# Entry
Amino acid sequence: MDVIETRIPAVKRVVPKRHGDARGWFSETFRADVLARAGIVQPFLQDNQSFSAPKGTIRGLHFQLAPQAQAKLVRVLSGAILDVAVDLRRDSPTFGQHVAVTLDAEGGEQLYVPHGFAHGFCTLTPDTMVAYKVDAYYSPEHDRALVWNDPEIGIDWPVADAEAILSDKDKRAPRLSDLGTVF
# Structure
């Protein structure tokens, strides 16, 4: 397993090795010791899974406030996504910047999203299933969202605004300039 920094070093790509033969392949998708060597040391407490039937489904950008902030380790079980992490740490030199990575079931790459980031994704294929580990339990009173298409952030989503499929919560989410200090 390789752990690779992105242009925002706190966000990391996790690339499991696949060992194949005539039957298919085998891969270790989670190794606490390898992640710890890369600075990812918090214990993951909950596994989440989502299924999105149509291509162009947007989920996010979501985050939880402290003391229930969540770090996430995201992977795709079927299909493909554009996975995005937005830096919400007010004192960070990369505040308001984002990392966008294509994840798919075929490659098995994962994205580590630390505390202080909003996270979301857009499905690139129909029938996409995403699984992710989090290091804090879901807390409705700490749950927040950032609007997915905020021009200040400038994410190049692979779907037009009018064609994106969103939850009501995500449609009503505020812009970065309206969030205030959250981390």
About this structure: The chain has two helices and 13 strands. The longest strand covers residues 80-87.
